[in-house]
Write a structure and sequence with these properties.
The structure holds two protein chains of two kinds. Chain A is an all-beta fold. Helices cover 0% and strands 40% of the residues of chain A. In chain A, the strands form two sheets. In chain A, strands 1, 3, 4, 7, 8 and 9 form a six-stranded mixed beta sheet that branches. Chain A has a three-stranded antiparallel beta sheet with strand order 2-6-5, with no helix packed on it. In chain A, strand 3 and strand 4 form a beta hairpin. In chain B, strands 2, 4, 5, 6, 9, 10 and 11 form a seven-stranded mixed beta sheet that branches. In chain B, strands 1-3-8-7 form a four-stranded antiparallel beta sheet, with no helix packed on it. By secondary structure, chain B is mainly beta. Helices cover 0% and strands 54% of the residues of chain B. The chains are: A mainly beta, B mainly beta.
């Protein structure tokens, strides 16, 4: 059971916009800790997509964006492309006994 | 550009110790929080531990007491030891480099190495 809750799957057609939610609590996202997002293509190691809730590393297209409100965060992907089909994980920090680095359970994005 | 390469046995017997090493290239050991994570087959990511170049460490409470992270800055590498392994420790183990911005995040990942716990 992950400390951060993500939907198991989302889907969208090419060109559409999809969002992936990441729900936490008052000891992590709600405590104003940043949220980070990773993309994991099939058979590959994860790759940093968003850090510091809203920042993109060099090389990540601006089709990917992050936001946060209250105890939840979201990853938005616009102009969906076939190569976006992957697993996506959110990550934050928790001030309780859960540990310094906590992950969501992951969301499988299917491009229809 | 940081590069990370894990190495170690792919098969470990139950109750024994899992030992992995990660060789760092392209950056000095002072640049990142050196981190180990794992991913059981078909499941999500789990952070295990990190070490900073000054020697400060932090461990996931779920494995604390069984896990040790060490570094050898002279050889540009860091390592993981996980004691008393069971089948539940079967996973792809990743070494990684973490940075801090509103909390630790993983900026660079190794390719991962599958470790199977089985007799």
């Amino acid at each position: 059971q992950s400390v951060l809750t993500q939907p198991p799957s989302v889907s969208g057609a090419p060109g559409q916009r999809v969002t992936i939610s990441c729900t936490g609590s008052s000891s992590n996202i709600g405590a104003d800790y940043d949220v980070h997002w990773y993309q994991q293509l099939p058979g590959r190691a994860p790759n940093l997509l968003i850090y510091g809730t809203t920042s993109r590393p060099s090389g990540v297209p601006d089709r990917f964006s992050g936001s946060k409100s209250g105890t939840s965060a979201s990853l938005a992907i616009t102009g969906l492309q076939a190569e976006d089909e992957a697993d996506y994980y959110c990550q934050s920090y928790d001030s309780s006994l859960s540990g310094f680095v906590i992950f969501g359970g992951g969301t499988k994005l299917t491009v229809l | 550009q940081v590069q990370l390469q894990e190495s170690g046995p792919g098969l470990v017997k139950p109750s024994e110790t899992l030992s992995l090493t990660c060789v760092v290239s392209g950056v000095p050991m002072t640049d990142y929080y050196w981190t180990w994570l794992r991913q059981p087959p078909g499941k999500g990511l789990e952070w295990l531990a990190y070490i900073y170049y000054v020697g400060a460490t932090n461990y996931n409470p779920s494995v604390e007491g069984r896990v040790t992270i060490l570094q050898d800055t002279s050889r540009n590498q860091f390592s993981l030891r996980l004691n008393s392994v069971t089948a539940a420790d079967t996973a792809v183990y990743y070494c990684a480099g973490g940075e801090v911005a509103g909390g630790l995040y993983i900026a660079a990942w190794g390719q991962g190495t599958l470790v199977t716990v089985s007799s």
